[in-house]
Design goal:
The complex is a heterodimer of chains A (473) and B (1041). With 473 residues, chain A is α+β, with helices and mostly antiparallel strands. Chain A is built from 15 helices and 19 strands. Chain B is α/β, with parallel strands linked by helices. Classes of the chains: A alpha+beta (473), B alpha/beta (1041).
Chain lengths: 473, 1041
């Protein structure tokens, strides 16, 4: 058999990323908890290890040993993204990459070995490309995917036959994910200690005791049975480029070529039933580094005329830093069209909703996204806390449960309550609001609706005196 | 405050409306009195759980008022009203109790609502109100105000509650308050229902608002931030001042409240509890019947006749019982105990009942009054208005039979368990408050992980939270809220065994609700509530040792009374501290005490079980007593008058009774004060009194010439008793069981060991330790074997050696059903092969694997690996293969499997049985040379005092008693016995990981020998974790931190 498969293992993928991201002080003990509810540590950094913390230890025990330990829970989506990024990177070495979550990759390398002239040079190139800053990378190569993984996990040199795998212990086989916890237990209890012991047992007897999956995996390991792997697919992107024979000198001049690109984008989106909220324009210049522009929309869009309209408004406000040679349109973020989007209005009918999206998008490109704000109600008893302005883009707040005991409230609330003399004509009140002790902005006031001249005012009385807080229309 | 102010708060929930009310009932009552209210109704939501505490608080206030003019003034006419609140579809109903009939109605309604829902919830429908023909009703319609539905309901309610219905207006000053309040008079006029007002009180003062918000968030299981839609907008739900009330409500509304209150003259004091009379034969009179039973008992207990003194005591007791009308109580308990006897269930009274000769004669208790000096007054006294308290221990494994008997005899509507109020403790309070404040719980874990070690200090929060929180304000808030939430009731759970039995329906006395356990119901009051109201409770407790003793006595065909009383061999064994498995005196601390105290008779055992307790230890009374006992110091009495009290303990007060008697003589305490002192020790709720009493004790003793040092010791001892009260009568009951179990161990070691093993879980030691101990005493122990073992462990008649055959119950993972099938199949014919056994006993895969792992197939398999391979083969259940397997007498032997070596077998034994009959793991390690020059436990005895050396062993116990500051006791076990390791705090802190995690430990240290007692300790300097030498061997240590 030949050396055909390479397995790359990133044992501290998540932890490494965490420490790099947060510029975590390496001397500070850090521990990972697995996704879910488990309180047992899954991994820890060197500082924590030094203090006696180990994998599988209950968090409370770890904290006894190392009170300053910081514990972080693993986010499975983030881990998935990190492995994807690794797979993208590995794509340069092999046409066939297959992710093996949570932290491994398979690469088909038969042809690469010919290209690089053997295992050693390939290995060097891999390490070189991975760099010293990246996460720890272990590799193993073998004739079958499972053999490669075993070798990577157990630190065995590449090999195409299975001889040196024979003495691997059950613990090592478990580490190489050939056996699960239960199988290890079953085998242990039969006095089985090594891979050789397993292979010696009658296959049917083994299958009835450890399940068919083990029998299948052993066949795959030895190459008696094919091992189909799912190929990694790079995430969706749209990239189109327009090259100019004559350099374009005005922003408006970009509109025409852009229209064509947007047409293709619209087709692209239409085919996939997607829309987008972010266009990236890359302008290349003769003597300057490229310029990057981003056009962001409040709501997903896919129709060409509307995209053109929005880009025109955007371009009208831009000034070219230098003449442009090529224009590249890149889209990497996509929104599914079926997705419900949160809106300012409670529940717009769909046609009106489209119009409303259109309006917001147009306003957004005209005004700059930061100038377009969203008003949302917060169920806080304190009037000044009961509404919030968000940038339109940040669509995070869900429509929240409202308080049921709200009385009449003026639509116009003053930014700062204004002192006033005691009112003469009280229409209703008092409404006592006494709350907010939890965030350093406690409020203790009696509110009244009062008539002043011909205006209805909302005033309150507090220990400091009387104040106007709002006006009724 | 104006004198004309009259107001009754008719709607107030306490913190017994769990996670809604934010004040204790006691706080509410005090505050209401302070504010000059004329009445306060405690109206918890579908519950009366808080009313007794409110009632008790009022009684306490009345007592305080004795020398307080102003308080007396405030209390005149103050009324505590019982009631309850019900909510349904946005409407609120407050039910108030005017008289006793109404009280019964309310109890039944609450019971119905609670029984119809899961624990902690209730199911209420408006139509249920129809059953209330005497209660008063305050009704607050839906906020949506007047509509047809409300109109119809108004008509119905008026019919149901003629002259007993009011509309309830409550001004909370929130958003639509004004509008709502203005509508009420209209509605009242339209429906012709009188209007009254209340304040929907949730807290006794407005400062509790943060806590109220906090418990709201806890109830909704989210942070305060997330709970904002449900938080009250202001803090108006408190007991308001006169000025505020007069400002908010019209004068006639305020007046109407006192009118309603005046109609509610019911007080909890009126609850007349009557004892069940079921056990009295028809035509008999209770007192005469009891006397007859006692006389029969006398003949049984004292076959040689009684002296005059005892006869006098019996007469005195019976007179007192007659006076207090307690006959039925004694008869009821007598009946329960008789039932247990008739079923062969061993039982024995404990606690203060052992002070009574009547109880002894009835067979409720087993302490012979001639052997200890008894204080019947401690049990029942003419002055005390509280029922006697008889606690009876039953065999733990058969207590359920007794409970079922009670249910069956009295019915579920007459018997129920008392509740235990589960309250917030430091950890739970800290967790819940932190979650409510939105603090990161992961960041808080370090605080909680180390909590157990330190929480006793006063300023524990400061110490723990020091720098962990962002701001000082945050810390301040957390501290404030945690300290307020501490001791808040959280939910009702069931008491371990306290039964309340009534003559009539129990629900006429107190509501009953569902407990978490299926088929169990609890009343809404706990033990102290029952005590406050003088209700009878009988404690049906469970004691594992009784099960074990019964198992020993049965095959010997003797009873406890047949055991010779002064057996020298037994006392010699006790003096050697050879007491593994013996009741009460098997702990490390007791084993250290035995060789010092050297018990020679029964009374010494009474002292022995009482002396290693927080009371005598904190009071430094142990050493003086030992010195006097060993003749190093003469007995001496601080006052001559104390001699009778202290004589039997050589002048050193050891028992709670003695300290109380001491207080009466040395500090001039009245009988009532002494009684209060006794009760204060039993309950934290009366801590307030405790402080005053201590002060008085101190002052009086100083005046009577006692040294300040001695007084301080006595005070510390009192505090210790508060932690763990252990009166002499109780010790006397327990000492009996100590002696009986010691005698059994001494003379029937195999039987005793089997009985202990069959009564697991109980006691201090694991089965492995008990079996090791039995082997050390010459018992031959035979392995589990499907051809010989029963389900239970059996003491087998050996030729010349006591023999113990391990039972199938030791096999982990084997179900009892499967074992019984196996035994039945074996009965028919012996097993020929593993397959034969699997087939005929219909063993599941799991069961047969468990047996294979335990190597229980004996010589049907070559070894356990072969057995496992065989049992994991799918079974052909057709006749042909069954026939073939019968033919097949050969072992299926698969040569491809490895053979287990000694280490494999040892690890497997530990996994599947929890112990090994093979060599001790430490013997294996020693043979392999892994332990260096570590001394064995036996070898340690040969070493000179103060020499140094290594020891090593399996960690079987880590203990950190509260009484020994900072010391951890570790027990190491090797093939020759146990080593006692003492780890001082400094070493423990330095090597915390090794100390807490190693299961094989080596230690270097100084060997310390006590010549008098022969006890050897090793003071550890350095600890070494050797666990890696035996991977897979995780022996469970019993850790008591």
């Amino acid at each position: 058999m030949t050396l055909r498969w390479l397995y790359l293992l990133f044992p501290d993928l998540y932890l490494h990323n965490l420490m790099a991201d947060a510029a975590h002080d390496a001397a500070r003990p850090l521990a990972l908890l697995p996704a879910g509810n488990s309180q047992h540590i899954s991994q820890c950094n060197a500082a924590a290890h030094q203090a006696g913390v180990e994998a599988d230890m209950p968090l409370s025990a770890a904290l006894c040993l190392c009170p300053e330990l910081q514990a972080v829970r693993t986010d499975p989506h983030q881990l998935h993204r990190l492995l994807q990024a690794r797979a993208l990177w590995a794509g340069q070495f092999s046409a066939f990459v297959s992710p093996d979550p949570p932290q491994g990759l398979w690469l088909e390398i038969a042809s690469m070995l010919r290209l690089f002239g053997g295992w050693e040079p390939l290995q060097q190139r891999l390490q070189q490309s991975a760099g010293t800053e990246g996460p720890v990378m272990l590799s193993g190569a073998g004739a079958t995917p499972l053999a490669a993984r075993l070798r990577a996990c157990c630190g065995l040199p590449p090999g195409s036959d299975q001889h040196d795998l024979q003495p691997l212990s059950l613990a090592q086989l478990q580490q190489g994910r050939l056996l699960d916890d239960e199988q290890v237990l079953t085998l242990q209890r039969l006095g089985v200690r090594t891979l050789a012991d397993i292979l010696r047992l009658p296959q049917s007897g083994l299958a009835s005791r450890c399940g068919l999956s083990l029998q299948r995996d052993l066949s795959r390991l030895c190459g008696h049975q094919a091992h189909p792997l799912p190929a990694f697919e790079a995430p969706l992107t749209f990239v189109q480029r327009a090259q100019f024979i004559h350099e374009v000198e005005h922003a408006n001049g970009l509109l025409f070529p852009l229209q064509r690109l947007l047409g293709r984008l619209s087709d692209f989106l239409q085919r996939r039933q997607l829309s987008t909220r972010l266009l990236q324009l890359t302008l290349s210049h003769r003597r300057r580094p490229d310029s990057e522009w981003q056009i962001r929309f409040a709501h997903g869009e896919y129709r060409q005329p509307e995209l053109v309209f929005l880009c025109r408004h955007f371009l009208e406000q831009q000034r070219l830093p230098a003449p442009v040679q090529t224009l590249t349109l890149t889209v990497e973020e996509f929104v599914s069209r079926g997705e419900k989007q949160h809106t300012l209005l409670a529940s717009p009918p769909s046609a009106a909703g489209d119009d409303h999206h259109q309006l917001l998008n147009r306003l957004g490109t005209r005004l700059q996204p930061q100038q377009l704000l969203r008003l949302s109600a917060i169920p806080d008893p304190r009037p000044e806390q009961s509404a919030r302005l968000d940038i339109q883009q940040a669509q995070t707040s869900l429509p929240s449960q409202q308080r049921t005991d709200m009385a009449q409230r003026p639509l116009w609330l003053l930014a700062q309550p204004q002192p006033c003399p005691p009112p003469q004509q009280v229409v209703s009140g008092p409404e006592r609001i006494c709350s907010g002790w939890w965030d350093e902005q406690p409020v203790r006031r009696d509110y009244y609706v009062v008539l002043s001249g011909r205006r209805l005012l909302w005033v309150f009385h507090a220990p400091q005196g009387w104040f106007i807080h709002g006006l009724f229309s | 405050m104006s004198n004309t102010f009259r107001y009754a708060e008719l709607h107030c929930v306490s913190n017994f409306t769990f996670l809604r009310g934010a004040s204790h009932p006691e706080e509410l009552v005090r505050r209401a009195v302070e504010l000059n209210y004329s009445a306060l109704a405690i109206t918890d939501e579908c519950s009366l759980a808080g009313v007794v505490r409110a009632y008790q608080a009022l009684c306490d206030l009345q007592q305080e008022a004795e020398n307080n003019e102003e308080l007396t003034q405030q209390l005149t006419d103050f009324r505590l009203i019982t009631g309850s609140e019900f909510r349904c579809a946005g409407q609120l109903f407050v039910v108030l109790v005017p008289d006793q009939t109404a009280y019964r109605e309310l109890c039944r309604l609450i019971t119905d609502c609670r029984r119809a829902a899961d624990k902690g919830h209730y199911a209420f429908e408006v139509k249920q109100l129809q059953s209330l023909t005497h209660c008063l009703l305050l009704w607050q319609p839906q906020q949506a105000a007047v509509n047809e539905e409300m109109q119809a309901l108004a008509v119905t309610l008026k019919q149901w509650f003629p002259q007993r219905l009011w509309l309830l207006a409550e001004r909370m000053l929130d958003g639509d308050d004004h509008w709502r309040y203005e509508q009420m008079p209209d509605a009242a006029a339209r429906w012709q229902i009188p209007l009254t007002c209340a304040s929907q009180v949730h807290m006794h003062q407005p400062q509790r608002q943060p806590l109220q918000d906090c418990v709201t968030a806890i109830r909704l299981n989210c942070s305060i931030e997330q709970a904002r839609p449900q938080l009250f907008a202001n803090n108006e739900r408190h007991l308001r001042s006169a000025r505020k009330l007069q400002h908010l409500y019209a004068a006639e509304l305020l007046q109407s409240t006192t009118g309603i209150a005046r109609r509610c003259h019911f007080s909890l004091a009126e609850i007349r509890y009557t004892y069940p009379t079921d056990t009295l034969p028809p035509g008999e009179e209770a007192a005469a019947w009891l006397r007859r039973l006692v006389e029969e008992g006398v003949r049984r207990r004292f076959p040689q006749g009684i002296d005059q003194q005892i006869q006098q005591t019996i007469d005195k007791e019976l007179r007192l019982i007659r006076l207090k009308e307690y006959e039925h109580y004694f008869l009821t308990i007598n009946d329960i105990v008789r039932f247990a006897r008739s079923q062969g269930i061993l039982c024995q009274g404990r606690g203060s009942a052992a002070n009574s000769v009547v109880c002894y004669c009835l067979g409720i208790t087993a302490v012979n009054p001639q052997e200890v000096s008894l204080l019947f007054e401690r049990f029942i006294s003419a002055e005390r208005h509280e029922p006697p308290d008889i606690d009876v221990d039953f065999e733990s494994q058969r207590r359920e039979e007794v409970i079922q008997y009670i249910y069956q005899k009295y019915g579920r509507d007459r018997a129920a368990l008392a509740a235990t109020v589960i309250s917030y403790r430091p950890k739970s309070a800290l967790r819940d408050v932190a979650r409510a404040l939105g603090l990161d719980l992961l960041a808080l874990e370090p605080v909680l992980a180390n909590f157990g070690y330190r929480y006793k200090k006063e300023n524990w929060l400061d110490e723990l939270l020091g720098q962990r929180l962002a701001s000082a304000a945050q810390l301040q808030r957390l501290k404030q809220l945690v300290s307020e939430l501490l001791r808040f009731p959280r939910h009702l759970s069931q008491h371990v065994g306290g039964f309340v039995i009534a003559r009539e329906r129990l629900t006429d006395l107190v509501p009953v609700e569902n407990a978490a356990m299926a088929g169990r119901t609890v009343i809404q009051w706990d033990k102290e509530d029952l005590e406050s109201l003088g209700l009878m409770k009988v404690d049906i407790l469970s004691l594992g040792m009784l099960s074990a003793i019964r198992r020993c006595l049965q095959p010997l065909n003797i009873t406890m009374a047949d055991i010779p009383r002064a057996d020298q061999a037994t006392y010699a064994m006790l003096q050697r501290a050879d007491t593994i498995g013996v009741f009460q005196v098997e702990s490390r601390a007791q084993m250290n005490m035995l060789p010092r105290l050297k018990p020679e008779n029964y009374y010494d055992l009474v002292v022995e079980v009482s002396i290693v307790r927080p009371g005598p230890i904190h009071g430094d009374m142990v050493h003086p007593y030992l010195k006097r006992r060993n003749g190093e110091e003469a007995a001496d009495y601080p006052l001559d008058a104390l001699k009778p009290v202290l004589e039997r303990t050589l002048g050193v007060p050891l028992f709670q009774e003695q300290v109380i008697a001491f207080a009466m003589v040395a500090a001039d305490f009245s009988a009532a004060e002494a009684d209060l002192l006794r009760r204060s020790m039993a309950s934290w709720r009366k801590k307030g009194h405790m402080h005053k009493l201590q002060q008085r004790l101190q002052d009086n003793m100083l005046r009577n010439g006692f040294s300040p040092d001695y007084i301080q010791r006595l005070l510390r001892q009192l505090q210790g008793f508060g932690e763990y009260g252990f009166p002499e009568s109780h010790a006397a009951s327990f000492a009996l069981l100590v002696y009986v179990s010691a005698w059994l161990k001494c003379h029937h070691p195999a039987l005793f060991c089997a009985a202990l093993l069959n009564s697991q879980p109980m006691g201090f030691y694991s089965p492995a330790q008990l079996i090791n101990d039995a082997r050390a005493h010459g018992v031959r122990v035979l392995p589990v074997d499907i051809r010989h073992s029963d389900w239970q462990h059996q003491a087998e008649p050996g030729q010349n050696q006591p023999t113990l055959r391990l039972g199938l119950r030791l096999v982990k993972g084997l179900t009892e059903d499967a074992a019984q099938r196996l035994l039945a199949a074996r009965e028919r014919s012996p097993f020929l092969s593993i397959a034969d056994c699997r087939l005929r006993a219909a063993l599941s895969q799991r069961d047969s694997t468990a047996l294979a792992s335990a190597n229980a197939f004996g010589d049907l398999a070559a070894d356990r690996y072969q057995a496992r391979w065989a049992v994991s083969e799918p079974l052909q259940q057709d006749l042909l293969s069954a026939a073939l397997s019968r033919e097949d007498r050969q072992h299926h032997h698969l040569p491809l499997l490895n053979q287990p070596d000694e280490t494999d077998n040892l690890v497997e034994d530990f996994h599947s049985l929890g112990l090994t009959l093979g060599r001790h793991p430490m013997a294996l390690l020693r043979e392999q040379g892994q332990l260096g020059n570590s001394l064995t436990a036996a070898g340690l005895q040969q070493q000179p005092h103060n020499s140094e050396g290594f020891v090593a062993g399996l960690v079987t116990c880590r203990q950190r008693p509260g009484t020994a500051a900072g010391v951890t006791f570790v027990t190491l076990e090797d093939e020759t016995g146990s080593v006692n390791l003492v780890v001082w705090l400094a070493t423990a802190e330095r090597q915390l990981k090794t100390l807490t995690q190693a299961h094989i430990l080596q230690a270097y240290g100084r060997i310390e020998k006590d010549a008098a007692s022969g006890i050897t300790h090793v003071i550890a300097y350095r600890l070494l974790d050797l666990s890696h030498l035996f991977r897979g061997l995780k022996k469970s240590s019993r850790d008591f931190h």
